[in-house]
Design brief:
By secondary structure, this protein is of the alpha+beta class. Helices cover 40% and strands 25% of the residues. The strands form 2 sheets. The protein has a 3-stranded antiparallel β-sheet, with helices on one face. Bound molecules: zinc ion.
Length: 124
């Protein structure tokens, strides 16, 4: 049996546009997945950017955070910003070691700005 790829159609999950795709097999899930990949609509672009971001984010987190739980705090904050994209402008995570990490989504790019202030609170 030939394994040659033939042109098929799938439907973009975001806008419903039909796209020509080349996929092995007839699994509609795979066809739609490929169609979404190929689509240029806003929803598909967003998910593409998110996927591309994920690797960079993982590398950034493992390089900059010593503890898995700290990494998880940032990941959770990223999830909130991504989930409420547009509704929530930024999430700030304040660690108990004095670091503040502000997570913002700017034009589909994730920005994490970290600051540490040695603030003294004086209590008489
Ligand atoms: Zn689309």
């Amino acid at each position: 049996m030939s394994e040659a790829k033939e042109l098929k159609t799938g439907i973009c999950k975001y806008c419903g546009q039909v796209q020509n795709v080349t996929v092995l097999g007839d699994d509609p899930e795979l066809l739609n997945e490929a169609a979404t990949e190929a689509c240029t609509c806003e929803g598909a672009q967003k998910i593409k950017r998110k996927k591309a971001r994920e690797k960079k984010v993982s590398e950034f987190l493992s390089k900059n955070f010593d503890y898995p739980e700290d990494e998880q705090f940032i990941r959770d904050a990223i999830d909130v910003v991504e989930l409420w994209d547009g509704g929530i402008k930024a999430v700030t995570v304040e660690m108990d070691d004095g670091w503040k990490h502000k997570i913002t989504l700017k034009d589909l790019d994730l920005v994490i700005s970290s600051t540490k202030t040695d603030k003294k609170e004086l209590k008489p």
